[in-house]
UniProtKB/TrEMBL annotation:
Class of the enzyme per the UniProt entry, highest EC level: hydrolase
UniProt family annotation: Belongs to the glycosyl hydrolase 47 family.
Organism domain of life: Eukaryota
Pathway annotation: Protein modification; protein glycosylation
Name of the featured protein: alpha-1,2-Mannosidase
Leader sequence segment: 1-28
Length: 581
């Protein structure tokens, strides 16, 4: 390469300064082209956002356990997958007054929460909705703002979108009071939020910020066996002393696949895909090795790559999005090479879930009403074998949507039936409690496999039921509601899949229950107990998923079905839509 002399360098420098003044720093972080088959339609003539790089460049950091050959992102033409959404047709009532009023009510709840976040917690992670202060559980990088960007876009709050997005692309991810970050949460909330905001707006600065964050998170894979730990500790990463965890939630390292795949698709960089493909290969290798072959336990030893250390099997807390991402990865890869592995794992795991984890509860309902199901937890005992505990969780309510998506894309009718019954189960449980909201964790009387399962008051009481709980429930072990989205998520997907308009009434009842029992002077708050009559106790917490997920799903169900069509987008576990390409 020729040496640039001083005299010849001056005009080049002048050009560089001019470019800097015109386009900010964007030009200094080139985004390489994605493979043709993943190119998105958007090309902005005049981007509005100006990217500011963080003060530490992780892409230049040393890899202590480098990789000889990278697995490449599958290319080639996509497979035409079956349609996910119901054929709504042109006669669909796009803006009937009732639905429109409901959509506006959701919008108002969002704006109320967002305005208080702006006023009291701008650029902080979370608003405290009772005290009108803030807290920073996720590194202090504006978790609520990053998480809410795509909702702002969908709700057509564009001016707020651009103000927030500019603040987000100015975030310095190298500045935090913490020594490290929660890898899973930062991936699903921050990286997922940035990628979907880019997919919707086409603003290149958002992709540059996503890439910069991706480079930081990628460092977590720099361990002896390339399995990431639960925390990304910055000094450990810089000094090459990271190790995978010995008992980490199985969902954590396994649900970075969508975000890293989308980042690889958009940047053309195989390293992001390679990182998560090694985790996929481990899951595939170990699927039959656990105490409940076909499923992975709630915690995994990623360091020794053993799935035999724990005997608990659930699709709720700790494990949920491991399963959720199996069909979603197939969709994100549009069935290309590599996607088959996700289909195979999904089919096998769901056979076990259907056989072992799902149960029909014994409840007082009209036998003519559509069937309902819940997902419990299986403990595999050394001698007695698997035992199903009829413990439901709000977190496992996402499963209705998962079965519906899997049922559609893989053409499995039984999964459509199961998905509907699971979604309806959660919707029904909301209505069963006096607040109109279901608890975080609860136990129900299980029906036997074959029996008719008619209401039996004596049996309910024998198993621990009493008048303080709705019939059929025997405890509310964790009676909180923390503004979670999973129940409305599945009802929304069921609506988009079936077009059944009565689901919007169910959603409206759920929304009213939530608003009534969580409203504070400034926004909405997690509550201590959904089983109470009258006033609820507020826990002064509003996690970012309230704006990113819960209100988004409510808004979408009352919007025309082509707003974020499930045939064009696939949503990550934080409800961030990624473009299907
Ligand atoms: C969100 O962060 C995600 O949906 C995650 O998968 C589970 N927990 C919360 C919402 O409940």
């Amino acid at each position: 390469m020729a040496i640039i002399r001083r005299s010849r360098a001056a005009p080049l420098l002048a050009l560089a300064v001019t470019l800097f003044l015109l386009f900010g720093l964007e030009w200094s972080v080139p985004v390489s082209g994605p493979p043709t088959s993943y190119r998105t339609a958007q090309k902005l003539k005049k981007p509005r956002l100006h990217f500011t790089p963080s003060s530490f460049n992780w892409s230049a950091a040393e890899q202590w356990y480098p990789i000889a050959t990278l697995a490449s992102l599958p290319t080639g033409p996509p497979t035409q997958l079956p349609k996910v959404q119901h054929e709504f047709g042109t006669h669909h009532p796009r803006k009937d007054p009732v639905t429109e009023a409901r959509r506006r009510a959701v919008l108002d709840a969002f704006v109320r929460s967002w305005e208080s976040y702006k006023r009291f917690a701008w650029l902080e992670d979370e608003l405290t909705p009772v005290g009108a202060e803030f807290k920073n559980p996720f590194g202090g990088w504006a978790a609520t703002m990053v998480d809410a960007l795509d909702t702002l876009w969908m709700m057509d709050l564009k001016e707020d979108f651009y103000k927030a997005a500019q603040a987000v692309v100015d975030i310095d991810f190298s500045k935090t009071d913490e020594s490290g970050v929660n890898l899973f949460e930062t991936t699903i909330r921050h990286l997922g939020g940035l990628l979907s905001a880019y997919d919707l707006s086409g603003e290149p600065a958002l992709l540059s910020k996503a890439r910069e964050l991706g480079d930081m998170l990628y460092m977590a894979f720099d361990t002896p066996n390339r399995m990431p730990g639960f925390w990304l500790t910055f000094e450990d990463a810089k000094n090459g002393i990271q190790k995978a965890g010995t008992s980490d939630p199985s969902a954590a390292p396994t649900s970075m696949s969508m975000e890293f795949t989308r980042l690889a698709q958009l940047t053309g960089e195989d390293k992001y895909y390679d990182a998560i493909d090694r985790v996929r290969a481990f899951l595939e290798r170990s699927q039959e090795d656990s105490h409940l072959p076909g499923m992975w336990p709630s915690q995994i030893n990623f360091a020794s790559q053993s799935v035999r250390n724990v005997n608990t099997f659930t699709i709720g807390a700790l494990a949920d999005s491991l399963y959720e991402y199996l069909p979603k990865m197939y969709v994100l890869l549009s069935g290309r090479a590599g996607a088959k592995s996700y289909e195979k794992m999904y089919r096998r795991a769901m056979d076990i879930v259907a056989d072992r984890l799902l149960f029909k509860p014994m409840v007082k309902r009209d036998p003519e009403d559509p069937p309902i199901l819940f997902a419990g937890t299986v403990y595999v005992h050394h001698e007695a074998g698997p035992h199903l505990n009829g413990e439901g969780q709000h977190l496992s309510c996402f499963a209705g949507g998962m079965f519906l998506l899997g049922g559609k894309v893989f053409g499995i009718k039984e999964h459509l039936r199961i998905g509907e019954a699971l979604a309806r189960g959660c919707g029904w449980a909301y209505g069963a409690f006096p607040t109109g909201v279901m608890p975080e964790i609860f136990n129900m009387v299980k029906c036997g496999a074959e029996e008719e399962c008619e209401w039996d008051e004596a049996r309910w009481k024998e198993e621990g039921g009493d008048a303080r709980l709705p019939p059929g429930f025997i405890n509310a072990r964790d009676p909180r509601y923390i503004l979670r989205p999973e129940a409305i998520e599945s009802i929304f997907i069921l609506y988009r899949v079936t077009g059944d308009e009565s689901l919007r009434d169910i959603a409206w009842d759920m929304f009213q229950g939530i608003v009534k029992s969580t409203k504070t002077q400034y926004a909405y708050s997690a509550i201590a107990d959904v089983t109470v009559q009258g006033e609820t106790r507020k826990d002064d917490s509003m996690e970012s998923f309230w704006l990113a997920e819960t209100l988004k799903y409510f808004y979408l169900i009352f919007s025309p079905p082509d707003l974020i069509s499930l045939d064009e987008y696939v949503l990550n576990t934080e409800a961030h839509p990624f473009k299907r390409t």
